[in-house]
């Protein structure tokens, strides 16, 4: 069975603990990804390293200790970083696509759908998405701040089966192995308890952001949404291939929720912004055939809502059937209700796909 896998590479792995990107180490990762890509798996790379690459490119020049300097380094370094990935993937004739995201692109449901559609479109075309935070513009308010958390959100976005966090340690240890030589690796975390959070410290190398602490938060977010998460070393030979095969390596965090249901809980934070009344055919499609809602089955729209907002779906008798995320805003739905999906573009001048509400973004009562 093929899987969707998000692989996060920390600065420590990409630089191999030095001050510049390590092409040999990056090539080793690319080689493994190419093999899995060939097998039909869908792979997404979340890559750190822009700031480190920027520093190196500018010859480690002195800069004022400001946010703008960090953003400057990210702006300079991101283009270096993506060039290296592109040249390495081209060895295997694999095309890549760059996505730079901020918190708003994931938390705002409208943007979330856009980002998700782009990811899906890239994967469908066998293009490997290469993702980083848009550090050059993300101000404190809009930053996720570390790529561990970003990769967990990307895993939810992509409905991935597995999230692999590659770092400079072979596992999560019971204390930081840099300060405690007797620290012991933990192979499985069944549940993230306060004790687990307690043993995960920060980053001491000055290269990484967040250390183990942000990886635990990321594992928590991902496993609650049904995404198995593993922390392992990017240095271990064939680490990605072994993990995808299910071999025991690093620290494995067991899933805490069914994948689809967990993801839905994450999606449905807000109260419904409007209601959609559907006909009998659409009701059967939703309840019996477990299908998405097409505009053709919509009779009436109440309330004003944006694309990405939560709406309640009612049958003709006014009985609530489901909650769902609308792929179109209320004005657009008024124009396309009762119409065939292939007429959407002509009616609106744009389209976000054939369905009004997708099955995977719906909770049936
Ligand atoms: N309990 C722990 N087990 C393993 N590593 C830990 C622990 N607590 C803190 N760390 C630190 O976390 C670091 C990895 O995180 P970080 O430096 O942010 O790397 P990355 O760039 O891969 O995200 C390790 O080098 C280690 O010093
Ligand atoms: N977005 C930043 C990296 C942020 C980050 O989380 O770094 P790391 O802890 O090395 O994975 C960059 O590209 O430099």
UniProtKB/TrEMBL annotation:
GO MF annotations in UniProt: ATP binding; glutamate 5-kinase activity; RNA binding
Domain PUA: 274-357
Residues involved in substrate binding: 48, 135, 147
Enzyme class per UniProt: transferase
Binding residue positions for ATP: 8, 167-168, 209-215
Pathway this chain belongs to: Amino-acid biosynthesis; L-proline biosynthesis; L-glutamate 5-semialdehyde from L-glutamate: step 1/2
Annotated keywords: Amino-acid biosynthesis, ATP-binding, Cytoplasm, Kinase, Nucleotide-binding, Proline biosynthesis, Transferase
Catalytic activity field: L-glutamate + ATP = L-glutamyl 5-phosphate + ADP
GO CC aspect terms: cytosol
Cellular localisation: Cytoplasm
UniProt-listed GO biological process terms: L-proline biosynthetic process
Superkingdom per UniProt: Bacteria
InterPro entries: AceGlu_kinase-like_sf, Asp/Glu/Uridylate_kinase, G5K_ProB, Glu/AcGlu_kinase, Glu_5kinase, Glu_5kinase/COase_Synthase, Glutamate_5-kinase_CS, PUA
PROSITE patterns assigned: GLUTAMATE_5_KINASE (PS00902), PUA (PS50890)
Key word Ion transport present: no
Record-listed E.C. numbers: 2.7.2.11
Matching PANTHER family: GLUTAMATE 5-KINASE, ISOPENTENYL PHOSPHATE KINASE
Function, as annotated: Catalyzes the transfer of a phosphate group to glutamate to form L-glutamate 5-phosphate.
Entry-linked NCBIfam families: proB
Similarity comment text for this entry: Belongs to the glutamate 5-kinase family.
Name assigned to this protein: Glutamate 5-kinase
Species the sequence originates in: Muribacter muris
């Amino acid at each position: 069975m093929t899987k969707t896998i998000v692989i996060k590479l920390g600065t420590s792995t990409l630089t191999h603990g030095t001050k510049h990107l390590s092409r040999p180490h990056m090539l080793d990762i690319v080689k493994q990804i190419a093999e899995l890509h060939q097998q039909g798996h869908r792979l997404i790379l979340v890559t750190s390293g822009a700031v480190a690459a920027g520093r190196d490119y500018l010859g480690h020049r002195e800069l004022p200790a400001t946010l703008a300097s960090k953003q400057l380094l990210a702006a300079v370094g991101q283009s270096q970083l993506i060039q290296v990935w592109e040249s390495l993937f081209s060895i295997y004739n694999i095309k890549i696509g760059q996505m730079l995201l901020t918190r708003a692109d994931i938390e705002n449901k409208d943007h979330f759908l856009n980002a998700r559609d782009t990811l899906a479109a890239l994967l469908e075309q066998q293009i490997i998405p290469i993702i980083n935070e848009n550090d050059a513009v993300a101000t404190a308010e809009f930053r996720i701040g570390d790529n561990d958390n970003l990769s967990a959100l990307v895993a939810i976005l992509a409905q991935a089966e597995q999230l692999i966090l590659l770092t400079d340690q072979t596992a999560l240890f019971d204390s930081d192995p840099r300060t405690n030589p007797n620290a012991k690796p933990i192979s499985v975390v069944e549940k993230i308890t306060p004790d687990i959070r307690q043993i995960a410290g920060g980053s001491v190398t000055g290269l990484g952001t967040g250390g183990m602490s942000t990886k635990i938060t990321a594992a928590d977010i991902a496993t609650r949404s049904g995404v198995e998460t593993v922390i392992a070393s990017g240095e271990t030979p064939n680490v990605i291939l072994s993990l995808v095969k299910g071999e025991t390596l690093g620290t494995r965090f067991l899933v805490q929720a069914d994948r689809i249901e967990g993801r839905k809980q994450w999606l449905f934070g807000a109260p419904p912004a409007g209601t959609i009344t559907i006909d009998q055919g659409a009701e059967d499609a939703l309840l019996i055939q477990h299908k998405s809602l097409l505009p053709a089955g919509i009779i009436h729209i109440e309330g004003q809502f944006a694309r990405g907002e939560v709406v309640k779906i009612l049958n003709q008798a006014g009985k609530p059937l489901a909650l769902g995320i609308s792929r179109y805003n209320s004005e657009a739905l008024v124009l396309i209700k009762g119409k065939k999906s292939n007429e959407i573009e002509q009616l609106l001048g744009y389209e976000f796909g054939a369905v009004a509400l997708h099955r995977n973004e719906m909770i049936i009562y």
